[in-house]
Amino acid sequence: MSAIVIEGYYAGLKSKADHKLLPLKEKPVIWVGTATCGKAAGAIEVREAFKKEIKSRGLDAEVMEVGCMGHCYAEPLTVISKPGFPPLCYGHVDEGLVKRLVEDFLVNDDPCYEYAMVALEPNDIFPTLTDFPRGAYEEKIILEDCGFIDPEDIDHYIAREGYAALAKVLTMKPEEVLEEIKASNLRGRGGAGFPAGIKWEACRKSPGSEKYVIVNADEGDPGAFMDRSILESNPHLVIEGLIISAYTIGSSRGYFYVRSEYPQAIRRLETALEQAREKGLLGNSIMGSDFNFDIEIFRGSGAFVCGEGTALINSMEGKMGIPEHRPPRLAESGFRGKPTLLNNVKTFAYVPAIIRKGADWFKSTGTSKSPGTAVFSLVGKVGNSGLVEVPMGTTLRQLVYDVGEGIPGEKKFKAVQIGGPSGGCLPESALDVPIDFDSLHEAGAIMGSGGLVILDEDDCMVAIARYFLEFTQKESCGKCTFCRLGTKHMLDILTRITKGQEEDLASLDILRELAEDIEAGSLCNLGKTAPNPVLTTIRYFLDEYKEHIVNKRCPALMCTDLIAFYIAPEKCSKLCNACVGSCPTEAVYTREDGLKAINQDKCVKCNNCLKACPTEYSAVIKLSPPELVVEKEREQK
Amino acid sequence: MSKTITLTIDDRKVTAPEGEKLLWVALENDIYIPNLCAIKEEGRPSASCRLCFVHVEGLPAPVTSCTQAVREGMVVKTRTPQVDRLVRTAFELLLSDHRLKCSTCPQNRSCELQKIARARGLKLKLKRFKSLGKEYPLYESPGLFTFDRSRCVLCGRCVWVDHEVAKVGAIGFARRGLKRMVTTFGNIDLDASSCTECGLCVKACPVGALNFTGEQSSEKDG
Amino acid sequence: MQGVTKRHYVIISKGDVFVLKPSENEKEIIIEHVAEILGGWRADRENLIPILQDVQDRLGYLPGVAMEKIATAMDIPAVDVFGLATFYNQFRLNPPGDHQFKVCMGTACYMVGGNIAMDSFKRRLSIGEGDTTPDRKFSLERVVCVGCCSIAPVVVVDDMIEGKVTPTRVDGILLAFEDKHQKKDDNKGNQGQEGV
């Protein structure tokens, strides 16, 4: 195949894109992050406000939509780039700030530095991301362009070297591409960390000419949203990776399996596919080569278990999403019984950079066994929530305290839940574990798809374990005995513990035995990993379990059946009625002496009064076990 | 596939066609391995009941024999402490979701669960786990059979014969997780569905969920 | 047979049986829509889920008669379509309320009070999870993570995502709808115009 044709084709695309984006460098541009999280925080209103202000003042400025920069704690986010200034990022933007920014910055050259969060390019005036701990630790490969390009305009991607890797691949032999991927030691980012190169090779070697490549975007772990964010912020990155994989294994049809809960990701993906087709990057003779390939989107119907490969395939074939025994592996018999390559969104997203910059470059980041970066959605009790990308080998401590800026409100760190329902809870003592596939596995957790929930002293570990078990139990497909019934019995025991109904410490032994048997006996990996949250919490937080069983007490004051709300009369003020008004069930009342108290029979433990009570009083407190209220009241008398 | 190989099951040498699933090789040689969901004619074993675990030398953990292809020189043990533990737990789990009143069950003495209990010395009583209290209304077809979902173990044999042998398509699985059930379209009674009362599903049921009534009641074989 | 003929309670929630039987008129409309949707697809088992999604996008739910039509067109047992529809979270067998509240129960939301938000909706609407109010105005569902964990707890109100939802905010959301309905009713009285 003629390399000149392909190189010429790509050069044409690139120069067109560069030319089209040129005007954006010469006038002010306002970038508004409108991924789902930004929208939820009011990004659409911000976009409209900018448009309105700019129009009413007759300014020559552009308002563009971008995806997610990962700084979710500060949404809605806006970046303003104006010639003569470094691009500046503003957080928590509202209509008032929009007015000021337009008037002071766009019209009068005052960038309102007091509102700016960070500058995006090195300069002499304002700090950049690398001046903050988070920026210093972060090293972005797959999130690099997220939030900085318009996901609905392919030229933005092309202008940033998008599809250069594809152009390069098309001049290579498929086996050369495979060697590069294998040499990079890229490991699958869906959870288990299986080497992508080996998977690709197995598919390539499988006999037959009809093969499929599929992106697993059925991101179902509660607390993980990086796949959504990548698809919403930079869909072409994943598309390019998928096309490269198809070329490598010899496939002419690919699919995106996306949860239907992610409508915006689906819409942006549809637009991206359409634009890629228009540019000759999909369809027949891609970039003038003789390689033909196209992509369809399959909307998942809301079943967590479909993240499992064989269940995903069943669902694509119009059946219940129920896992099958393996072997045969998907590489031998997958979609329509043909060899199929299934990788996670992030795995595909690494591919273009690896091809462009080489396997050695990729391996220079991360650890020797887990090269590259890890993407986490940092949520829960952490100052700086959002999407972060750090080199493998970064410790959990650095992630929580430096990147995430620690626990807010002077609370004490308790645990980090990593890997979602298949993962585990790691305590303070495990904070120096480096983040890579093997170290996390040893500690009892898994990398999973990268959900990282930080828990503090107010979070009950038994309740967390119960929460995840309830999740797996609800999401179990119900096919195999261990998962269908075993998780139910585990859940029942945990429920009894959190309600103070479990009398016998021996129930912990049953819990452990059952967990081990479910691990060994389940049909699929979802079942096999379902007991992990319970096993790790028993391993690291056994005392909390015992407190619940022996003393009927929830040390974190979280299990509603084991706590009661109480208003301390010595702290309460006669002049304040905040709690009374906040109570949805009229349980809070005013005593004869004007102080407030709670009618325990009516209380639904919704936490409202505690939130409503002004901090100068902090009179509402939680007590566990609930019988303490009676004691307190007796003391009063 | 036609090549004949020799393997050892519980110290007995047996021969079988290469690639045949271990469960069938054992059963055909009168070596019992507990099973509920296995159907020999089924292309891809459903492997859902999780009772047919065996130990294969060289493998780190017990495997289900319904999915394990036999090969030359394979050494198999149907009983090891590890295997017994998994089988016992799976069995107890199934019992916790099965109405356990054998004396009133039409399938008493020809029930596959009773057979497993006998073969493996397991009790037909719940000790470790509490009963999940599954209760469904009993369905009685006009004159031919009854369907008691409270005794159903979700092995799927009835659905398979309905779809693949009788080719009727009256029953199927619905819902998921703990609520997974064998039912009809719209969850209506069988006589209102497309059921032809051919009785094949009743014959396929290994437990007391589907039972003939009246004269045919002796026809069903456990 | 003695001893087993006793009738026990049924473990089935409303979501699985067709509560509403469409009238003949409605049935005709449903069949028309389904025929139109089927016209756009190859009648292939692989397309079953996309077809069901299309039908639900159009009608808001999967009526029994629609499922039967689809099964016939694909030449598969209707019970298989029913099984599929009851397996996946996305599908509903009964019409939803005019407004849907989906309370997120992802980890991040749960940790900071997703269940409290859920309880507040249940209390205020007097319905359970997966139910619709008798006047069919509101329905309440749980969803597993909408991926907006940094503004937890999250409730999806129709298609809008509301972050940091407290019990007070729940009251606010409901009040806003009551106002809207009030206005709608007023407008109807005056000119029959659509409310805001």
Short descriptors:
heterotrimer; A: 637 residues; alpha/beta; Glutaredoxin; Rossmann fold; Ubiquitin-like (UB roll); five-stranded mixed β-sheet; 26 helices; 18 strands; globular; C: 196 residues; alpha+beta; four-stranded mixed β-sheet; 7 helices; disordered N terminus; disordered C terminus
Provide structural commentary.
The complex is a heterotrimer of chains A (637), B (222) and C (196). Chain A has 637 residues and is of the alpha/beta class. Chain A folds into five domains: 7-129, Glutaredoxin, CATH 3.40.30; 162-362, 3-Layer(aba) Sandwich (Rossmann fold), CATH 3.40.50; 373-459, Ubiquitin-like (UB roll) (Roll); 462-550, de novo design (two linked rop proteins) (Up-down Bundle); 563-636, Alpha-Beta Plaits (2-Layer Sandwich), CATH 3.30.70.20. Chain A contains 26 helices and 18 strands. In chain A, the strands form five sheets. Chain A has a five-stranded mixed sheet with strand order 2-1-3-4-5, covered by helices on one side. Chain A has a five-stranded mixed sheet with strand order 11-10-14-12-13. A four-stranded parallel sheet of chain A has the order 8-7-6-9, with helices on both faces. In chain A, α1 (3-21) runs antiparallel to α7 (164-170), α11 crosses α14 and α20 packs antiparallel against α22 (532-540). With 222 residues, chain B is α+β, with helices and mostly antiparallel strands. Chain B is built from five helices and ten strands. Chain B has a five-stranded mixed sheet with strand order 2-1-5-3-4, with helices on both faces. Chain B starts with a strand and ends in a 10-residue tail after the last strand. Chain C is α+β, with helices and mostly antiparallel strands and 196 residues long. The longest helix of chain C is centred in the C-terminal third of the chain and has 24 residues, at 167-190. Residues 1-15 and 189-196 of chain C have low confidence and may be disordered. Chains A and C meet through α2, β10, β14 and α18 of A and α2, α4, α5, α6 and β4 of C.
Helix content of chain A: 40-55%
List the strand order in the largest sheet of chain C.
2-1-3-4
Under CATH, the topology of the largest domain in chain C is which?
A: Glutaredoxin
Number of strands of chain A: 18
Query: Tally the helices of chain C: what do you get?
Result: 7
Number of domains of chain A: 5
- The overall pLDDT average of chain A reads 94
**Secondary-structure arrangement, i.e. CATH architecture of the largest domain in chain C:** 3-Layer(aba) Sandwich
Query: Numbering strands along the chain, what is their spatial order in the largest sheet of chain A?
Result: 2-1-3-4-5
Stretches with pLDDT under 50, minimum 5 residues of chain C: 1-15, 189-196
CATH class of the largest domain in chain A: Alpha Beta
Largest sheet of chain A: 5 strands, mixed
Q: Report the CATH architecture of the largest domain in chain A.
A: 3-Layer(aba) Sandwich
Global morphology of chain A: globular
What structural category do the secondary elements of chain C indicate? alpha+beta
Kindly state the number of beta strands of chain C: 4
Question: Strand percentage of chain A, roughly?
Answer: 5-15%
CATH homologous superfamily label of the largest domain in chain A: NADH-ubiquinone oxidoreductase 51kDa subunit
